[in-house]
UniProtKB/TrEMBL annotation:
CDD domains: radical_SAM_B12_BD. Residues 490-514 are annotated as: Disordered. It comes from Gluconacetobacter asukensis. Its cofactor is [4Fe-4S] cluster. Gene3D superfamilies: Cobalamin-binding domain, tm_1862 like domain. Residues 188-423 form the Radical SAM core domain. The keyword S-adenosyl-L-methionine applies. This is Radical SAM protein. The keyword Iron-sulfur applies.
């Protein structure tokens, strides 16, 4: 028996398919028994469920051979650490395996934890199978690519990287092993929204992105027909009416986008995806129309900055003109664009922030429906130099216990990283700008503010937006507080944030490497 654990990462009402552990289960041989324990399900006590599976498996003569957790940075890490410790304390002889992005980015603190025995780095399907052979004593673990572990002398072995495969080369998601209906939840896309991933990796070289750190500059995409086949099953058998694609770069090129539109259209789904502005601005009007008719409702684009110089330093590979062109194209074809922007440039944080404010105003003038996703720069380990010449490991914790303290959760979620070059007054100004903008232009995502609050906020923000005055919008904060149907959901799916982030006891010792 293998137990695959998806530790809690969000509130139960925001749960989605546990795709990562589903993929590992699908790759296991047919004679291996396995179960998924999803900590995001309502009312679940993950430890009790896992303990129950362990006891039952032992009674049935199929003892648990390993417990494998997928662990992402942020709230999921906060859940995973005490859960792993509790399991290891009660069942010390069962190997504990961690996969997911946190261990891939920061293997050392994971290996410093006595309750984690093995780390799977990068793609896990084939690595996990080979690791099970090593755990069983049938293989030298040093011959398994993509794993890390503590050696007998306490030193850390970080194995070579595995050459990974695309989704089209792997088994289909095992929807029959989960209660699909529990995961089809209402979103802005529809009443029964699901999630899917049709590709792995990204071919671009943005030097602030964790995707590049884990996978390198590669992307493998399965054929749109296969994607449509899997989605068709969910539509026909479970009534799914919309889908959020997890791909970091959904369209390879215009020909691929046209094929996606052709295969998606018969499904009748409304969908969200992420795409590059340099690709989108080259699409013909016919391709834009085809995507809209195929159900594309919203597209997320990493804009990141309103400065071509900064975009070049980020190795982003796009221009501000392409961002503006994409905003115009989405307006013309009735598709809502989401643009993300980073605040906290290590070289000129205040100048860059003010420049980006001005650029966002230009985007809003071109497409008033544009949605802003803003966050603070958090140095992420890179294969090459990190954006801004920052040493991304300097000052970061050596233990998992420190990583799950509130200040480091705020770091991992980009909510409030305490960076020496980005003063509190600048973070506050960025937050005030965001509030003024989203009061003047209520977000399509906001279904938790009463209609009267949105109207009042729009009116109250009109003068501030017109005069470009963002500081200390007390009235807007009061309107938002009183008009909320429910309090702000700091664990909302897709944009996980800690409930609070008190000031850290010490600031990260970020080093500029030049």
């Amino acid at each position: 028996m293998i137990i695959l654990v998806n530790p809690r990462a969000t509130r139960p009402e925001n749960r989605r398919f546990p795709l990562s552990v589903m993929a590992i289960g699908a790759a296991l041989p047919s004679d291996v028994n396995w179960k998924i324990v999803d900590g995001n399900l309502p009312g679940i006590d993950a430890f009790s469920v896992i303990a129950g599976h362990i006891e039952q498996a032992a009674a049935e003569g199929d003892p648990v051979r390993s417990i494998a957790m997928t662990v992402m940075p942020g709230p999921q890490l906060v859940s995973a650490v005490p859960l792993a410790k509790a399991i290891k304390q009660r069942y010390p002889d069962i190997p504990m395996i961690w996969g997911g992005n946190f261990g891939s980015l920061y293997p050392q603190p994971v290996l410093n934890a006595p309750y984690v025995d093995w780390v799977v780095q990068g793609q896990g399907e084939e690595t996990f199978l080979e690791l099970l052979e090593a755990i069983a004593g049938r293989r030298d673990p040093k011959t398994v690519a993509g794993i890390a572990f503590r050696q007998e002398d306490g030193s850390h072995w970080i194995g070579p990287e595995r050459v990974w495969k695309g989704p089209g080369e792997l088994p289909a998601p095992p929807y029959h092993r989960i209660d699909v209906g529990q995961y089809l939840r209402p979103t802005i896309l529809g009443h029964r929204s699901g999630v899917y991933q049709a590709s792995i990796g990204c071919p671009y070289g943005c030097n602030f992105c964790g995707v590049i750190s884990v996978f390198g500059r590669r992307e493998k995409v399965q054929q749109p027909e296969r994607t449509a086949e899997h989605l068709r099953y969910l539509v026909q058998h479970h009534g799914m009416d919309s889908v959020h694609f997890y791909d970091n770069n959904f369209f390879l090129n215009e020909a691929h986008a046209q094929e996606v539109a052709r295969t998606m259209k018969p499904l009748g789904l409304r969908w969200w995806c992420e795409a590059r502005v340099d690709a989108l601005c080259r699409f013909s009007d016919a391709t834009w129309r085809a995507l809209r008719e195929a159900g594309l409702f919203m597209v997320f684009c990493g804009a990141e900055s309103g400065s071509d110089e900064v975009l070049e330093r980020m190795n982003k590979g796009i221009t501000t003109e392409q961002i503006l062109m994409t905003a115009a194209k989405t307006r013309e074809h009735g598709i809502i664009p989401e643009f993300s922007f980073i605040f906290g440039d290590p070289e000129r944080p205040e100048q860059e922030m003010e420049n980006t404010f001005s650029f966002i105003r230009r985007l809003k003038a071109i497409n008033p429906d544009m949605e802003l996703i803003s966050y603070f720069f958090t140095p992420t380990p890179q294969r090459r130099q990190t954006y801004g010449g920052v040493d991304a490991h300097a000052g970061t914790p050596d233990t998992l216990e420190e990583w799950i303290e509130p200040e480091w959760v705020a770091w991992m979620t980009h909510e409030d990283p305490r960076l020496p070059w980005f003063a509190q007054k600048l973070r506050t100004r960025a937050q005030d700008f965001d509030l003024v903008l989203k009061s003047r232009f209520p977000s399509v995502h906001d279904r938790k503010t009463r209609d009267w609050g949105k109207l009042l906020g729009k009116a109250a923000a009109w003068w501030r937006w017109r005069q470009e005055i963002y500081d200390d919008p007390r009235l807007l904060r009061q309107i938002r507080r009183f008009a909320r149907i429910t309090p702000d959901d700091s664990q909302a799916y897709g944009h996980l944030r800690p409930a609070s982030a008190p000031k850290p006891r010490r600031s990260p010792r970020m080093v500029l490497t030049g």
